[in-house]
Structures
1.
Amino acid sequence: MKKAQLLSEIVGDVFLPVLGYLFWGWNLYFILLFILIDFSVRLLFAIWRPATRSIQLLLRPILFYLSFLILSHFYMVLTEPTWRFATAFSAFFWYEDLFIPQGLILLPLLIYTERSRERMELMLNGSYNASQQLKKLGNRLLGGTLIFMLMSLCLVVFNWTETVEIIFFLSAWLFLVIYEHKAVFLKR
């Protein structure tokens, strides 16, 4: 994997949620919804590709996606017992910035990003290895699930604020992305 690919992953997966937190007032759930929509788009592309329609290839990412979804929502209920999915999702999707709902911008952006990821892989490596991308997606979802398990334990032990919670999550997410691409740093 090239450094350009690592940089694009960091920008798309970490920097955009940081911008959302700093400039658009995203809370942890808005960041989580962005990540979930991103993973949903990636999984739908994987299901759509003929090369990855095998249940053996899709089983692991789908199970990890469901575990990430359930555990992250469990965490949100722990932090705010009055929280409701439908109202929170609606608030995220229809949140307006410059009079345009962000969901109408983010969804096409994430679809475009997935297509660009495919083209970049094809351009750099000469072929697109869909099963390798599914394995990478499954690993990222497993890492995200472990992050929320750790955050749930920390919530019980510590009484942290929303800011500390978001900084912890984004730092752990950045570490996860960098760890996935450790080969870039080990190559000379």
2.
Amino acid sequence: MGFGFNLFFIFILVPLTGILLIIWLLSRKILIGKILGIIWLGIFGLAFLSGITQWLTAKTVLDKEDYYGEYVINRELFKGKQTDWQYNHFRFEIMENDSIYFYETDNETILKTYKGKISTTEPYNSARLIINMTQPTHHILTSNPTTYRSAWNYYLVFKSPKFHNMFFKKGKWKSTGSKESRTHNNGYN
């Protein structure tokens, strides 16, 4: 608990409990025993509620192994033709041998593969992804992604000089079935 709670505990709660306990032992009044019980049940209830709230809102802590898997454009954050086009033209995979394969695609067909290696750094308590690509590489992979974590999952954001921020999430590619996403364009329509 915090500093304020510690002060409250030492200077108010413990002396109040001690005084009420002495009064209750001397007078044997049930009302004072109930007041003591309500105070301590309230304190334990607040501590329990605080613990549950912290658990539910704590950010996901990532290890290097959490990054292994397939990634696709996150179409839940932004919707539209541009997102569908990116979804059908870019995806990547991080293997357990720390290799990364970035795929330039036309829907399910892989047109070009860019290879590299990954590592992680832990400046705080969660691993951050570092990508070293074999040159030349794709413009999306010119810098390391930023990892955004929530209580339940995470996503990666790559800064592309052509497309700006590109949002990837872990998942398998599935056909979108829309005609717009199947057209060949430069991604700016």
